[in-house]
Amino acid sequence: MEFLLGGVAAVISNVVCNPLDVVKIRMQLQGELMARGAYTVHYRNVFHAFYAIGKADGLLALQRGLMSSSAHQFILNAIRLGAFHFAEDKGWTTDESGNKTSLPKSVAISAVAGGIGAVAGSPFYLIKKLKY
To answer: Of 17, 20, 68, 79, most Cβ neighbours within 10 A?
Structure first.
């Protein structure tokens, strides 16, 4: 169940934060291939960028790349949170007596779970970046 809950929580957060990512990427890419000062500034600030993107491309453009971004977040966080909970249930995060949480074991399990989640989710992250 933790796999599912971790993934769903990440997707809900992604729906809220994705427009900020779209605006950030668009602002970073304006004039990227031109010499400094030789390009037209399309977005004066973050608020203007939201307005300009919504006006020129429609409000749905602010959610561009949402499906691949949501898939990335779901896979990444479901694996991370689910695998750590699984390890806790198996007792892999406690010390030899089984009473206290072992920091080194928890860090190692978190690193492995995070690495597996990152590798599994990275193809969707790449697709997301290609959508802009």
So the answer is: 79
Give rounded-to-5 percent helix, strand, coil for the chain. Answer: 75, 0, 25
For 41, the enclosing helix (H) or strand (E) is none
**3-state SS class at 101:** strand
Residue 124: name the closest of 11, 23, 44 by CA. 11
Residue listed under structure tokens 């406690």: 94
- pTM equals 0.77
Specify the pLDDT at position 5. 87
Closest CA to 112 of 127, 132, 96, 92: 92
